[in-house]
Amino acid sequence: MHPYNFLERILFLHTHLNKEKLRSILKGKTILITGASSGIGEQISYLLGDVSAHLILVARNEEKLLKMKNEIEKKAAKVSIFRADLRNQLEMEGLLTFIHQLPEGIHVIVSNAGISIRRSINHSLDRYHDFTRTMAINYFAPVQLLLAVIPMLRKNQGQIINISTVNALLLPFPYWAAYQASKSALDTWFRSSAPELNAMGISTTSIYLPLVKTPMILPTTAYQKMPVMCPTHVAKIVCKSMYTKKRIYRPWWLIFGEMSSIAFRITYEKCVTRILRKKGK
After folding, report:
1. 21-52: per-residue pLDDT in tens?
2. Longest Cα–Cα distance in the chain
3. Which of 57, 64, 127, 176 could make a disulfide contact with 36, Cβ separation 3.0–4.6 Å?
4. Are 38 and 64 in contact, with CB atoms under 8 Å apart?
5. Residue 56: which of 137, 113, 15 has the closest Cα?
6. Catalytic: 223?
């Protein structure tokens, strides 16, 4: 866990994880984690290594998954890995076949896989594929996966944890149209489905995160000096939700951002437009 500076300690309050409770609630259960080979997914996987559970790790990097399996299985957990690019329909179908062959089914699914992209509309005019590929992994793939496992989650009275972003609840920023549209689409789908899922006995948890220090943010140089959460800290928050069943996690300050998004929308949009015009000159 990278050490937080003073501002980060204020923005990202300490999370206490009751590991005994976690081990007790997850003993003998099967947890599927997408995007498991790096960042948040990797840290969740290692944190669950001390639990006597079956972890199914899904990602594109098979070599990394194998390394993680070898390390984690030195502890208490059993690990199955599945290399798949969830945008590829054949690979998705292979994963679904694997899941439906599990005798115990799935008890918890952590929907974490995703990509980020920052590009202005002016530089996107001939790059429609940026939008289709971003929607493919950030929206269509998780929806297809979740629809396929809902029957077994209902049987097991399981839980779905969606790793989302604070941007889904705030005014959208310029240059992030592809990313923010895809994350907002999944967030809206998940929130719309949640009452029906809860009525089936399936717990639903939305984790709204600010910037997290993962490989996904490295290409954006503007982020290098901004406050960022540590993925190990996020992993604690996610794992804690597995026994608290809390429906929403969001940073304490997000409520002020949401209110500002409503109160100052017109002012914000005018100011941003003015700034972008000046940059264009």
Report:
1. 999 999 999 999 999 999 999 999 999 999 99
2. 63
3. 57
4. yes
5. 113
6. no
Residues 118, 212: Cα–Cα separation, whole Å: 16
**Sequence-ordered list of residues with C-beta below 8 angstroms from that of 4, at least 6 positions apart, any chain:** 12, 230
241: number of Cβ within 10 Å: 21
- Coil vs helix vs strand at 69: helix
User: How many whole angstroms from its chain centre is CA 243?
Assistant: 18
- The answer to whether 254 and 211 have CB atoms below 8 angstroms apart is no
Q: What are the E-state strand segments in 84-202?
A: 108-111, 159-165
Q: Is the pTM of this model over 0.70?
A: yes
Q: Which of 139, 175, 179, 208 is catalytic?
A: 179
Question: Which token pair is 65?
Answer: 């998954």
Asked if 133 and 177 touch (Cβ cutoff 8 Å), the reply is no
Type of residue numbered 231: P
Per-residue pLDDT tens digits for 234-252: 999 999 999 999 999 999 9
Nearest to 17 by CA among 253, 232, 165: 232
